[in-house]
Recover the amino acids of this structure.
């Protein structure tokens, strides 16, 4: 009896091909586990601390070896390094050294006055107005200088209602403010500008005649010379608070 050869149905072959080429089912990707941020930060901090400790140990070993080999040189370098550190701390205000503080204060005053002397007249008036606005007691400080200002360059109004007439004299160091400036400011700040007090600020000094003229007034004006201006800039009390 002849055996009949079995034939696969054509549809069966196509179905198998489609099943083979069909992409597998997608599975949701797992998110990588993350370490807590606090743990990672602590680990990095420990690593940095260990690194600094190792560097400090190496530096200490190098210093000890150098001290054994060259004791005099190491001592001199140590003294210089200590002095430089103290000077740096004193310069930045972290260490108070009275003698150096006075020297640097004088240097800072000289530098500040030089900067103000290089300003123009209007720039100096605006700088004085800015200084006045730093005072919490000041409500407003308005620049009103001009060709016919009649002794008023900056008008300062305090929160308590007082009005201060400020006259600005940007002079070189050798050019001093004389007595006529005292008479002009005294004759106008009350009658013309309706102010309660008057202040004259200069980058220079006042002559002896100006000081005598001011002392003879029933209500002397407040005179601020270059050094007084530098103290005001450095955080000192404003003229109307003295």
């Amino acid at each position: 009896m002849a055996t009949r050869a079995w034939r696969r149905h054509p549809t069966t072959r196509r179905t198998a091909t489609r099943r083979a080429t069909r992409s597998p089912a997608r599975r949701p990707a797992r998110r990588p586990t993350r370490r807590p941020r606090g743990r990672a930060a602590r680990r990095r901090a420990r690593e940095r601390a260990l690194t600094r400790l190792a560097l400090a140990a190496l530096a200490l070993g190098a210093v000890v070896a150098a001290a054994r080999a060259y004791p005099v040189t190491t001592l001199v370098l140590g003294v210089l390094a200590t002095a430089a550190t103290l000077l740096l701390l004193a310069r930045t205000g972290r260490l108070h050294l009275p003698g150096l503080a006075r020297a640097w204060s004088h240097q800072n005053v000289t530098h500040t006055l030089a900067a103000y002397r290089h300003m123009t007249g209007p720039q100096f008036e605006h700088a004085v107005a800015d200084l006045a606005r730093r005072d919490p007691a000041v409500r407003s400080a308005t620049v009103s200088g001009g060709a016919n200002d009649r002794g008023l360059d900056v008008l300062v109004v305090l929160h308590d209602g007082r009005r201060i007439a400020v006259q600005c004299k940007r002079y070189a160091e050798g050019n001093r403010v004389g007595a006529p400036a005292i008479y002009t400011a005294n004759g106008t700040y009350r009658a013309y500008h309706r102010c309660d007090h008057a202040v004259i600020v200069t980058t220079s000094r006042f002559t002896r005649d100006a000081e005598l003229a001011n002392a003879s007034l029933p209500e002397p004006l407040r005179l601020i010379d270059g050094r007084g201006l530098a103290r005001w800039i450095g955080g000192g009390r404003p003229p109307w608070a003295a």
Summary: Residues 37-69 form the longest helix (33 residues). Residues 150 and 188 are 7 Å apart (CA to CA). DSSP finds eight helices and five strands in the chain. The longest strand covers residues 163-169.
